[in-house]
Every structure is written in C-alpha cells, then in structure tokens.
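FAQ: What does the model actually see?

It sees only this:
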Amino acid sequence: MNVKNFENEGRKFAVNKGNFHVLEYLVDSSVSPSNAATEYFMSKMGVHRRQVAIELNGNNSAIIQAGAMQWMAGDIQATSGVKGVGDLLGKVVKSAVTKESAVKPEYTGNGWLVLEPTYKYILLVDVGEWGSGITIEDGMFYACSGTVKNSVVARKNLSSAALGGEGIFNLSLSGTGIAALESNVPYEELIEVELNNDTLKIDGNLAVCWSSNLDFTVERTTKTLVGSAVSGEGLVNVYRGTGRVLMSPVAPTSSLVASTNTIAAKAAAITSNTFGK
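And it is asked to produce this:
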C-alpha cells in the first residue's frame, strides 16, 4: 500500500521511534473564516495539532485508548483485548483508579493505524530503556506496542496520598516496545533527574513519569505537623531509590480546553481591535 501526501509542506513526521511516528501540523489550513484568526495565533504560539501514526507489519500490534482511532489502511483487525469476564472486571477496576479507559483495543495486521489529532504534546518512550518499567501520571496513556504490559501500582502510604489530594494509584508500563504519552509540556522542557540511591521531593504533581522501581510516597516536608504548617509547604511527593524521574518545570494546566479558549479569546480581542475600527 502506498499512502500519498502523508507529509507535505504543512505537516511533517516530527518524531519517529520504532514503528511509532508523530505527525505534526506546522500549518493548519483546514480552517474557516470564523476561526482563522484563532488558528493563526495558536500556530504562532507553537500550539499545533499532532497525530500518532503506527506502522503494523503483521509481526507487531498496537494497543490504544478506546475511541482514539481515526483511520486505518490495510489488512488490520481490531480486538477488544478482553480475555474474559474476570479480565474485564480487572480492567474496570484499573480504569476507576487511573482515569484511563477500561478497555483498550488492540490492532494487528499490515498497514497504517492513525489516531485522532490532539493539541497536546506526544512523548514517544522506549519502555525497555526504563528497566523494571515506567509509571505515568493519570490520563497520559495514549497508545503502546502490543508487547508492553500495563499494571496498576499504589503509593506505599495511602493515607498521606489522600490527604495530599493526589491520586493513590498510577498506571505502570513494563516489558519492551514503544509507548505514546500525551503531555501538556514538550519533551524539550522536561527536566530529567537520575537518582542513585537518592531522594527527590516535589511539591505537587510535576512528575510526568518515573521508574517503577522507585519508592513513591507522600510525606510532610518536616517531621511535625507544626513544622509543615510553618514552612508553608505541607505535603510533598517523594521518590526514593535508583532510577529516573521526568519532571515538568511548571504546573500542568488544569484543562487544555481552558488554555485553548484563552488563546481564542486573546485572538478574538486582537482581531476586534484591529479590524473593528
């Protein structure tokens, strides 16, 4: 099969890892007069649409978030990935605690599998390079190779996690293969901290992913409640051991839609001031 015009002057494969590719729309020409100004200013601020394109050759497969498929070309079949009632119940429990879809369909065959576009950044991660596995923040999973296994891991001190307002459970990926993660921050801005039998403490959920073998807890910044209150920091996320942590330099936005709406409002105001006179 030959797919033409996959790349052109307006869109390019910005990142390639294994059989996973990130198609980035540098110029979005599919606009109408009503949203042209918004799209223009979004592009100037580096807000681009991105799509994950996966090559399947019969010897590999891909697991994606439910509803993420946009189109597929070739002899490709989709399965639910559910191996029975017990497996379905387990996936439902995982979904409830990790904010991921309960059923992640698996695609096999020969051809192209292309996912829905997103304005978030796509991180392509080689899971095998993380040794025992990689644990990710809630809602980041987008797709992975069929050879990647997923499980749910919990923090050691659940009570402090609840008090800190953070999630108690996270999705962990292990094995070999590529994982595509949706991030509010580009990879170039992430700070990588390599721990060698050491400790990292972070105020808030700035860590986007970390080595699964690290001890992950939520603790007070000082030994006493009074000390924590005086310091003004309260509870922090703590990572101990030997491994890696990818950390965002700024707090993630609460809603990508809200951010997009802010850009749209600014663009509309500029347009009104420029052309409304």
